Amino acid sequence: MSDAEFAGTMAVTAEQRFDVPALERYLGAHLPHFHAPLEVRQFRGGQSNPTFLLRAADGAQYVLRKQPGGPLLPSAHAVDREFRVISALSGTGFPVAPPLCFCEDRSVLGTLFYVMGYAAGRNFWDPTLPDLKPAERAAVYDEMNRVLVRLHTLDFVRAGLTDYGKPGNYFARQIGRWSKQYRASETEPIEAMEKLITWLPQNIPADDETTLVHGDYRLDNMIFHAQQPRIIAVVDWELSTLGHPLADFSYHVMLWRVPGGENRGLAGVDCAALGIPTEAQYLATYCERTGRAGVAPAVWDFCMAYNLFRIACIRQGILRRVVDGTAASLHAREAGAKARETAQLAWRQVQERLGG
């Protein structure tokens, strides 16, 4: 599957069409200097909240994020939380798209939605960065590491996000939450998921920390400057909260454990030849920047297993939306079908690395 299938925009699918004149009226009343009519295109990538590129009559461009139509799982598709966190972060200088307006009136488009500025830049999907030179790849990876460190060391209290989540006990709460999400979207029995749901809560590391976490910090959720290896916007904040920084960082680093090809991972890739750091090097850089002495192998491997479990739950939710006919992406069925494969990979890591 090529990057072209995920990058860029396409015509709005029949399942995701909405009342464009109603949106034009809303933006005319809430967005200064807005000029109708709108041209609307749907972004190809993404599985959860449908995202659209809006081009106004004067050439100004905006991005619309909305909930999908139909029944929603509890606490899922939280576009209100997305808008709150990017609004808070924009005041700190952290790279996010400019927040413009949030609409909680479902009579406009049928769901909650928000509009933000369009960040024009580069979006990468393949972690091997085939179009870049080794030095450029190294710079991109260093920038991803630097920006996540900045997020994890940001003063979330000063940013007004004290109540953005519950401090402490993050893994236990998240495992409970995702287990419920999985049950609510279950379509068939998956033995590996049953084992993980039992094993994970019984093996949570004792150490606990609280920072602001993104929850889905990966290469394709970052927009880079058109010429420089600099992130101009981190997007898709639906899963952000207050949580354990190692849970967030290990999710990001999981791509070193995932096979390449359709899964877009780095397992089996000659990183040194490409100019990409190894998992150990990338972790060491993060620890150095955050002042952390290191991470115990058992803790790190638990974090990896937890994140694979979480991805399996997310993919199961995608599959449920395919069954319900509300999936936001043309590739949703393929992504959802990988729920079993991801759960099995997570359980193999538990058995091989943690003696589960």
Please render the helix and strand layout as text.
Layout: E1 9-10, H1 20-30, E2 39-43, E3 51-55, E4 61-66, H2 79-90, E5 99-103, H3 106-109, E6 113-117, H4 134-152, H5 170-185, H6 191-199, E7 211-213, E8 222-224, E9 231-234, E10 241-243, H7 245-253, H8 271-274, H9 279-290, H10 297-324, H11 332-336, H12 339-354
Antiparallel strand pairs: 1-2, 2-3, 3-4, 4-6, 5-6, 7-10, 8-9
Helix pairs in contact: 4-9, 5-10, 6-12, 7-10, 10-12
The number of helical runs is 12
Average pLDDT across residues? 90
Tally of strands: 10
CATH superfamily of the largest domain: Aminoglycoside phosphotransferase (APH), C-terminal lobe
List keywords for this structure.
356 residues, alpha+beta, 10 strands, 12% strand, 12 helices, Phosphorylase Kinase, domain 1, two-stranded antiparallel ribbon, globular, 2 domains, disordered N terminus, Aminoglycoside 3'-phosphotransferase, Chain: A, domain 2, six-stranded antiparallel β-sheet
Task: Describe it.
By secondary structure, the chain is α+β, with helices and mostly antiparallel strands. It has twelve helices and ten strands. A six-stranded antiparallel β-sheet has the order 1-2-3-4-6-5. The chain has a two-stranded antiparallel sheet with strand order 7-10. It has a two-stranded antiparallel ribbon with strand order 8-9. Residues 1-5 have low confidence and may be disordered. Helices cover 41% and strands 12% of the residues.
